[in-house]
Design the sequence.
């Protein structure tokens, strides 16, 4: 993080996050105290930081340090590449449970505003689970307004019955659609990544969300998607009609949780919809996961995408507590 500004307090200070020393393990420890089901690891956080496309998108992180020198909280603020606006930042503030309700969250957030507003920040995006009373109160207190909800849904892989979808899969096959993997396509097709970049961009543009998705560079796409350490090339599935890429879905590892996978984007081009392709892709992904001994698959869906929520419920995904997204206008 590029800024050396510090904010002194009578009982500690707020400073820039350091890539050396104890900041990584302490930040990860505190995050997992609060959201342990996400399974963050030091290695995963380092990988995110080291690969971040800083020439295009800003990322900042600060830590709160007690008078004893202990890291007790963190604020992470960064651009969102696929919803990029140079004035918009996604902001995450979390404080160790033993130091909450002492003003540290407020100080971290104010520090972020003090640094980023002179750099052109006009909007903060935050989030909190619908049952996280303290986090919801914190965001409301600081002028954040709820704009959107989405759900993480969980599938028990052992309970999934693929035979229920045999008719849709047969319809997909009869339309001449085959399913291939990124692992094989990369060896077979020289411009595989360029074609996937175009496919992914088109599908993302059609996903209902509060802010329209924008195209990212192929370098950012490669870093975020195809070459990300959590992406599994054998579980990155591509629907092909002849040699045309018409759909995809991909599964990712969850750091620290070896028996759980996350299902990222699933989608089909407009020209190929109605052939059961999304169903065939999801079934193939779940069957791969079952063969690998995976116990659970998780996925996220927006309240603005009821069709995908309905599809996932047919597969047996169970919705968890909603995640609420909030917006703060820094100009007010």
Sequence:
């Amino acid at each position: 993080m590029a800024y050396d500004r510090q904010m002194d307090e009578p009982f500690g200070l707020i400073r820039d996050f350091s890539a050396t020393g104890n900041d990584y393990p302490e930040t990860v420890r505190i995050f997992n105290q609060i959201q342990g089901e996400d399974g963050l690891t030091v290695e995963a956080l380092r990988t995110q930081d080291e690969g971040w496309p800083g020439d295009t998108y800003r990322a900042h992180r600060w830590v709160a340090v007690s008078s004893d020198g202990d890291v007790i909280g963190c604020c992470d603020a960064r651009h969102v590449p696929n919803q990029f606006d140079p004035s918009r930042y996604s902001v995450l503030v979390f404080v160790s449970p033993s130091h909450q309700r002492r003003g540290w969250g407020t100080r971290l957030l104010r520090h972020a505003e003090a640094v980023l507003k002179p750099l052109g920040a006009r909007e903060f995006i935050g989030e909190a689970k619908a049952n996280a009373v303290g986090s919801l109160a914190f965001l409301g207190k600081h002028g954040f307004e709820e704009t959107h909800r989405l759900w993480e849904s969980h599938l028990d892989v052992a309970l999934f019955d693929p035979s229920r979808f045999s008719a849709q899969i047969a319809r997909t096959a009869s339309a001449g659609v085959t399913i291939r993997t990124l692992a094989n396509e990369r060896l077979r097709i020289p411009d595989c990544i360029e074609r996937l970049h175009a496919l992914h961009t088109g599908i993302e543009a059609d996903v209902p969300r509060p802010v329209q998705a924008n195209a990212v560079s192929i370098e950012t796409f490669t870093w975020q998607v195809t070459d990300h350490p959590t992406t599994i090339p054998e579980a990155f599935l591509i629907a092909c009609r002849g040699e045309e890429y018409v759909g995809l879905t991909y599964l990712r590892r969850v750091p620290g949780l070896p028996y759980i996978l996350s299902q990222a984007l699933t989608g089909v081009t407009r020209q190929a919809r109605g052939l059961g392709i999304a169903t065939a892709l999801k079934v193939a992904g779940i069957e791969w996961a079952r063969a690998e001994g995976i116990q659970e698959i998780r996925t996220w869906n927006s309240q603005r995408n009821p069709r995908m929520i309905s599809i996932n419920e047919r597969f047996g995904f169970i919705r968890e507590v909603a995640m609420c997204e909030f917006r703060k206008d820094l100009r007010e």
